[in-house]
Amino acid sequence: MDQHKSALQGIEAMTLVSNHHFPRHSHDQFGIGVVAFGVQRSWSGVGSVIAIAGDVIMANPGEIHDGAPVDGAPRGWRMIYLDTAFFASQVSEEFAGPIEIMRPAVRDPLLARHFARLFRCLTDGQSDRLAGEERLLGTLMCLLQRHGMARPARANLSPGVAKAIERLDLAPEAQISLAELAAFCGVSRFQFLRGFAREVGITPHAYLVQQRVRLARRLLVTGQSPAHAAILAGFADQSHMTRAFVRQLGITPGRYRAAVA
Asked: Do 166 and 200 meet the contact criterion of CB atoms below 8 Å apart?
């Protein structure tokens, strides 16, 4: 995996070639990319999805998904991730209210061409700011006009699970037990564990580790060392963080920090 230096703040760009099986997880950003070669199978809220070379792959913030190669063969793809506030600032003049991308993978050659021009602008180190902004807006307009819709409230979460997510989001670095979360929601441990996994798609612990990886990533962006970021994010040590970081993001914390510094 290569983490590129992006020409625009608020956007991360990366190139990935891997046979890594990413576990169920989500991002706190909007993601859009194009498969360069190979085949990827992923689980999503709409069921199992197959993406082949040329397909555009997309994800909303907080959307649970995974990713696996087919028959163990490597696949390659390029991705950009847009911070949610940055994304909203770019489209607010044309789209009012929260936006959701409707499908995790589409065959859309026009959008793929927009993405290719934007990715080149972001990563070639030669394009000026105006060119980058034009390519960005062109890509986002194409994306949302063809594959976007107003996002409904998260009414599918029960009050107890919503409270647990709020608690885990608030302080992912803090230690907490299953009994504490269940008591916080007013149900038994068994009821809480079953309900959380059913509604969210992953277990409470998997969700917590995901949030700790996100916190560690933000700390690394600010210049914290991997060892210090691991402690601040609630991991037992740096090696524990590194395993979780690579499992979810496909890159080591050290390489990520060097790319975004």
From this structure: no
Torsion angle, CA of 73/76/77/83, rounded to 10 degrees? 80
Whether residue 119 contacts residue 78, with contact meaning beta carbons closer than 8 Å, is answered with yes
* Measured distance CA(208)–CA(125) in Å, rounded: 37
CA-nearest of 256, 245, 260, 213 to 20 is 245
pLDDT at 30 over 90: yes
- Which of 29, 28, 25, 18 lies closest to 44 in space, CA to CA? 25
State which H helix or E strand residue 150 sits in.
strand 148-150
The amino acid that residue 108 corresponds to is D
In this prediction the pTM is 0.77
Does the pLDDT value for residue 49 go beyond 70? yes
User: What are the structural domains, with CATH classification, of the chain?
Assistant: 2-150 (2.60.120.280), 159-260 (1.10.10.60)
Buried residues in 141-175 as b, exposed as e (16+ CB within 10 A): bbbbeebbeeeeeeeebeebbeebbebbeeebeee
Diameter of the chain measured on Cα atoms: 58
